[in-house]
Design brief:
The protein has 32 helices and 20 strands. The protein is α/β, with parallel strands linked by helices. Among the domains are: 169 residues, no CATH class; 135 residues, no CATH class; 252 residues, no CATH class; 46 residues, no CATH class. The strands form 5 sheets. The protein has a 6-stranded mixed β-sheet with strand order 12-10-15-16-17-18, sandwiched between helices. The chain has a 5-stranded mixed β-sheet with strand order 2-1-7-8-9. It has a 4-stranded mixed β-sheet with strand order 4-3-5-6, covered by helices on one side. Strand 19, helix 32 and strand 20 form a beta-alpha-beta unit.
């Protein structure tokens, strides 16, 4: 491999893996660091990206004051994490563990720089006559690196002159890359785009008439004289010109790409996943992007050095005042005497070992512990609940998504004769899907899967003139609006209509939406066409049936319900869709699965495999919109007449459950009154979905914290506050652990990816998330920028994560520890996630109520702290009047509540 290509490939591992907006799929933001333990990874990433590893210490102390973290949590974490020989750290002082407990419980604000100097000079915060202060000031300073050395040539010039060359190069590079990757927003395509970004750059700027910024003097001649250069050649030349030593080239290439990691990452996505392009996968190469960036860097740095008067930056003096101040305040609080310099140096070392990063790490563990204890205690206490008996009236298979937890719970409360299941929302149907209105097919499956099968939606009637007429009119308006003459005329002609629509959508969003879509449900009758073979379809249906276990007591009617989300003016709409379908909507997958399960040829193969589906059972595909809580069902005209009434009753039950779920979900919106009437819930949810000015149409996965893999009977009737992914696993039907291994291999990484993206976007909204929505602009149908030109913002906006609790996923599996150990040892990805602490892993024994938590490389027995939880007859009794996250409760439909609902 070319040396430059090797450098680029290694640097690319640190780039975001976020695809274009329409294929936004949740993933571990720090995927490149998964080989490290979680604590080491977040610390290392903070150094590389300049980001935050945990919440601030002040935030944790707010949780401590509110009871979200308890002193018992801190004591338990310190006992597990801090070695202690029982001796005081200094004579007369606390032991190591006691020091950490006291330090974690004390918020010491340490002013920096001039602020601390002012505090010492102008206040009596420090008794300068105290001998401890003098000894701490004169104690030996710690050894170690003085700081992070400059890596890029741009960094050295910035240090020398105070001028940032990126302010010259980045705006141009952003415009070039946005134009190159543009998916049809621009009317005029970039010249020579079919030959790659570097070729297009040369075509634009080699001509004599090119409009150049002052720092690019000489660029046209340079490009003309080197018209035969490849991007690799240009990179090598630029690194030589910038005087980058061979030993530094990997670091410089990496730092250069990371300086615009959003755009660099999108180029990499187009290079390796062209199938995720919204319209046209242009021939993108990351080495082209690097070549353009380095060539621009060469000209910018020449310009800065030659034409700009240098203004050296003032060097920051790193003194010992802050360190001494913190140690002095702690010595006073803990009543520690420091009679000589040796004791002072020892005390400083103790304080240094419990630095800001270590304190935040331990407080984070205490924060997670309180949540873990609440969930595990609730699961253990719930096991006295009586399982439903009798044949179910109908069965419903939902996506395992935590947003469906409330729908399933409310459905079971209002319709006790139903049986629900959870499975990954692509339902095993990995396909390239092209709907009737889609420009091109898109993959609907987990992002790690490359589908080889195609499913197409076809109209039953071949001729649909009305749709073609509307499509032609839409194309005419789209093209015409971007031309000079027609654009002006169309703006005048359509301005009044557009203004009326805008006013309506702002003032009367629900009414305007319904008026504009009043004929939207009269589409043509369609069917799915697929190239799956019968054995392949039998594999899909059989795997889902055996894993979830819905074939064991088959009801005459089985609903397969995918999900997605639709909202107005929301660039991150696909981030609310189904992660199992690669950021798409799972309705087509549910419809395809039902079609396969109803196929007599498939049932014949399944019967031969010992998975019989009775002739009297019918499957119906459905789609749940999690934003407005509406339902849609497919191919109802094919439902046998004998199943018509059962289907109607099932639809009524699910519709009622959606109303209840909307009512529960709306409590999280600050704009919703806490006493919202049940009959107003759907209207309120719909208004959030269609309001043009609504920045929070749906909170998506913002409550995710738990994943439970096991039988629904063990969690049915347990209030989990829409926080748990629920994957059904038929324990009795898996003799060789093959089903559980496959299930955990999917559930673990997918749910961890969702959980970790929310974690990082909350912990550092600017560094890992994309900040607030307010300044966002969509560019090229690719992503969002702040304003008219910024790096492509990756991660989630603050309005999606603001109610999130950043805890690592608690994965609870109904299996014995020895079985799970064997699965971990044979599954590298899952072993890495669990072993390195990216998720919390729990064994929940099927035959007993024993729980074991994976800690320090092994499963350790868990003893509950709490055995009593609130008992209610409806979920509304738990969440009524509440906005914050809630604990577990028993929802015993039809039971007598022995005690009033306790405070959470």
């Amino acid at each position: 491999m070319n040396p430059v290509a090797e450098l680029v490939d290694r640097a690319a591992t640190l780039l975001p893996e976020q695809g274009p907006l329409q294929a936004f799929v949740h993933h571990n933001t720090l995927h490149a660091f998964e080989h490290l333990p979680f604590a080491d990874a977040v610390a290392r990433a903070a150094e590389v990206f300049g980001t935050q590893p945990y919440l601030s210490e002040a935030t944790f102390h707010g949780f401590l004051a509110d009871g979200r973290i308890t002193p018992a949590d801190i004591a338990a974490v310190v006992a597990a994490e801090v070695p202690d020989d029982g001796e005081p750290v200094v004579p007369g002082g606390p032991t190591a563990r006691r020091f950490h407990e006291l330090r974690l419980g004390a918020l010491v604000e340490v002013p920096r720089g001039a602020a601390l100097r002012w505090l010492l000079d102008e206040t009596d915060a420090v008794d300068v006559t105290d001998p401890r202060w003098a000894r701490l000031l004169t104690a030996e300073p710690p050894t170690g690196a003085a700081g992070t050395p400059a890596v890029r040539p741009r960094d050295r010039v910035l240090t020398e002159t105070g001028i940032d060359a990126d302010l010259l190069t980045h705006p141009l590079l952003i415009r070039l890359t946005a134009a190159f990757l543009d998916q049809g927003v621009a009317y005029w395509p970039m010249p020579d785009r079919e030959h790659g970004l570097f070729a297009a750059f040369r075509s634009l700027y080699a001509g004599p008439g090119a409009v150049l910024d002052p720092f690019l003097r000489g660029l046209p001649a340079f490009l003309r004289d080197r018209s035969d250069w490849t991007a690799e050649h240009a990179v090598e030349w630029a690194l030589d010109e910038l005087d980058v030593a061979w030993s530094d080239r990997e670091a410089v290439v990496t730092a250069t790409l990371l300086s615009l990691r959003g755009w660099a990452g999108m180029v990499r996505q187009f290079e390796h996943r062209p199938d995720r392009a919204p319209v046209d996968p242009h021939p993108a190469r990351l080495v082209d992007f690097l070549a353009v960036q380095l060539v621009l860097d060469v000209f910018a740095l020449r310009y800065v050095r030659a034409d700009v008067e240098p203004e050296p930056l003032a060097q920051h003096h790193h003194g010992t005042l802050e360190r001494a101040y913190e140690a002095y305040v702690l010595a006073r609080r803990m009543d520690v005497d420091l009679p000589d310099h040796a004791h002072a140096a020892t005390w400083l070392a103790v304080v240094d070992r419990c630095d800001d990063l270590e304190r935040r790490r331990l407080l984070h563990l205490a924060y997670e512990r309180r949540h873990r204890v609440g969930v595990l205690d609730g699961l253990i206490a719930h096991q006295n609940v009586v399982e439903p008996t009798g044949k179910p009236a109908f069965q419903a298979v939902f996506c395992l998504d935590e947003r469906e937890e409330s729908v399933r719970r409310h459905l079971e409360e209002s319709c006790p004769e139903v049986e629900t299941f959870g499975f990954a929302g692509f339902f095993g149907v990995a396909m390239n899907y092209q709907g009737l209105d889609d420009v091109r097919a898109r993959p609907l499956c987990p992002v790690v899967v490359t589908p080889t099968h195609h499913v197409t939606e076809r109209a039953v009637d071949d001729v649909v003139p009305g749709r073609r007429l509307r499509a032609g009119w839409t194309n005419l308006l789209s093209v015409g609006s971007r031309t000079l003459a027609r654009g002006g005329l169309l703006s005048i002609a359509m301005g009044a209509a557009g203004l009326a629509s805008l006013v309506g959508r702002c003032l009367f969003p629900r009414a305007a939406h319904r008026w504009e879509h009043r004929s939207g449900h009269g589409g043509p009758k369609t069917r799915l066409e697929t190239d799956f073979s019968v054995p392949e379809m039998a594999d899909i249906v059989g795997t889902v049936a055996r894993t979830a276990g819905f074939h064991r007591d088959q009801s005459p009617l089985v609903l397969i319900i995918g999900h997605g989300s639709s909202s107005m003016n929301n660039p991150h709409e696909s981030a609310h869709d189904c992660g199992a379908t690669g950021g798409g909507r799972g309705g087509p997958n549910a419809r395809a699965f039902a079609m396969m399960a109803n196929d007599p040829r498939v049932r014949e193969v399944l019967a031969e495999r010992g998975i019989p589906i009775p002739d009297g059972t019918w499957f119906v595909g459905g789609y749940h919109n999690t934003c407005d809580d509406t339902m849609r069902y497919y191919d109802e005209d094919l439902v046998p007449e004998s199943h018509g009434e059962p289907l109607r009753q099932a639809k009524d039950s699910i519709a009622h459950a959606c109303v209840l779920a909307a009512h529960e979900r709306c409590r999280r919106f600050e704009s919703t009154p806490t006493d919202l009437a049940l009959e107003d819930a759907l209207a309120h949810a719909e208004e959030h979905a269609v309001d043009l000015g609504q920045p929070r149409p749906e909170y998506g996965h913002a409550t995710n914290a738990v994943a439970i893999v096991g039988r629904r009977a063990r969690t049915r009737g347990l209030y989990l506050d829409r926080r748990a992914f629920l994957a059904s696993y038929d324990v009795a039907g898996d003799n060789d652990d093959a089903l559980l291994t496959a299930l955990l291999g999917a559930v673990g990484p997918v749910c961890a990816g969702i959980n970790l993206e929310y974690y990082f976007s909350f912990v550092d909204p600017a560094g890992y998330g994309c900040g607030t929505k307010l300044p966002h602009n969509i560019t090229g149908l690719l992503g969002v920028m702040d304003g008219h030109a910024s790096d492509l913002r990756t991660g989630l906006p603050w309005q999606m994560v603001e109610i999130h609790e950043p805890v690592r996923l608690l994965l609870v599996v109904e299996a014995a520890p020895d079985r799970l150990n064997a699965i971990l040892n044979g599954h590298a990805v899952l072993n890495r996630l669990v072993g390195n602490g990216w998720i919390q892993f729990v064994s929940w024994c099927p035959d007993t109520n024993a729980v074991h938590v994976f800690q320090d490389g092994s499963f350790q027995p868990y003893a509950p702290e709490r055995t009593e939880f609130p008992v209610v007859t409806r979920s509304a009794q738990v969440y009524a009047g509440e906005r914050d996250h809630l604990g577990c409760a028993h929802v015993l439909t039809g039971a007598e509540v022995p005690v009033p609902v306790a405070a959470r």
